Amino acid sequence: MRPRRPVFVDVDTGVDDAMALAYLFGSEDAELVGIASTAGNVGVRQVCRNNLGLLALCGVTGVPVSMGSATPLSAPLRTAEDTHGPQGLGYARLPEANSELTTYDAAEAWVRAAHAHPGELIGVATGPLTNLALALRAEPALPRLLARLVIMGGAFDYRGNTTPVAEWNVSVDPESAAEVFAGWNGAENLPIVLGLNLTENVAMTPELLSRLAGAAGSPSTPMSAADARGTVSTASNPLIRVLEDAMRFYFEFHHDQGEGYLAHLHDPLAAAVALDTEIVRYRAAPVDVELTGTLTRGMTIADWSRRWGREPNAVIGVDVDPAAFFDRFIDRVGAFAKRLG
Ligand code: BDR
Ligand code: CA
User: Fold this and answer.
1) Residue 267 alpha carbon to ligand 1 centre in Å
2) Where are the beta strands (DSSP E) in the chain?
3) Which residues lie near ion ligand 2 (Cβ < 5 Å)?
4) Residue 208 lies in a domain
5) Is the CB of 126 under 6 A from ligand 1?
6) Is residue 125 lining ligand 1, measured as CB closer than 6 Å?
């Protein structure tokens, strides 16, 4: 068995964030040392409820959950209930929390976790980067303290999903994304950045979801675009039921966008890469965020041809093996769900 590595995750849970958390819960090579909640897909209090509810559902104890800022650094908050459902988890209902939030906030949680595991901590950010930017203001040595940072955000040489050019996580809080990238200027250990150009290659389908249910010992009939909207899962397994009810909403959203009855697993890919970097191919580049464009605010730009004269401050995912990802995802989450019965 591979050694367990400390992992700290910052999420705006969110259907695919929930799938990322399930992946980390089910990964025996990860020791989850903290969850930061950030405002994004839904408001920050709801994100906290979702994180605590998922821990309760999965019987995971001892993982501190911290609340982040209720708003981005300087922009007003936008949320995405159309994509993730009124509470962020599609049609799923989570149990009430059986643990409390930390007394310190999410930015402090980042700094505490980095100091507790200097040079060892793997950070994963799958929401707007507000907490991480605030953590970096408090502890500018964060890039040296982390062993690895994986960010789901941006879109490189690829259209946006929020504006024609901007991806959601960056678009919600472009100033924080810009601060985070600037914070890694000159660092040795560059963050891995997975944008839509990469994550949209990872599409969950009804067939793959059925494979997951099968792996959990809780077989289910594949969902279909012809099903009545909001049809609830009949899976006997509590985690599979929640994931299916959440995914159905996400499938319906993607279907309505003309993308097919499927859903992109942006955030679970980041969780998987945090533990196994080799499922993605990368290219380093200087990266920055457009903050002032009248049409392009929130756009992420990679200066591949080095016209800015700057050194790379990020390693950008450019190719992924989706089959390798899904094999890992189904193995880990399926076996974890099975243990929950
Ligand atoms: C990102 O936006 C959110 O809605 C998802 O959870 C993911 O982190 C994709 O653009
Ligand atoms: Ca997210």
Assistant:
1) 7
2) 5-11, 30-37, 65-67, 121-125, 146-152, 192-194, 203-204, 263-264, 280-285, 287-289, 300-302, 314-320
3) 12, 14, 17, 126-127, 267
4) no
5) yes
6) no
What are 233's two structure tokens? 């899962």
pTM for this model (two decimals) = 0.98
Question: If you measure from the C-alpha of residue 1 to the centroid of ligand 1, how many angstroms do you get, rounded to a whole number?
Answer: 32
In a domain, 302, yes or no: yes
Residue 141 sits in which domain range?
5-203+260-340
Instruction: Find the CATH number of the domain harbouring 111.
Output: 3.90.245.10
Give the end-to-end CA distance of the chain in Å, rounded to a whole number: 24
What is the Rg, in whole angstroms, of the alpha carbon atoms belonging to the chain?
Answer: 18
Distance 76 CA to ligand 2 centre (A): 18
Q: Is the CB of 267 under 6 A from ligand 1?
A: yes
* Number of domains present in the structure of the chain: 1
In a domain, 159, yes or no: yes
| C-alpha 18 – ligand 2 centre gap (Å) | 9
Atom of ligand 1 nearest to the CA of 13: 6
pLDDT of the chain along its 341 residues, tens only? Answer: 778 999 999 999 999 999 999 999 999 999 999 999 999 999 999 999 999 999 999 999 999 999 999 999 999 999 999 999 999 999 999 999 999 999 999 999 999 999 999 999 999 999 999 999 999 999 999 999 999 999 999 999 999 999 999 999 999 999 999 999 999 999 999 999 999 999 999 999 999 999 999 999 999 888 999 999 999 999 999 999 999 999 999 999 999 999 999 999 999 999 999 999 999 999 999 999 999 999 999 999 999 999 999 999 999 999 999 999 999 999 999 999 999 98
Is residue 150 in a domain? Answer: yes
Alpha-carbon span 188 to 141, nearest angstrom? 12
Question: How many whole angstroms separate alpha carbon 89 and alpha carbon 50?
Answer: 8
Residue 245 Cβ inside 6 Å of ligand 1? The answer reads no
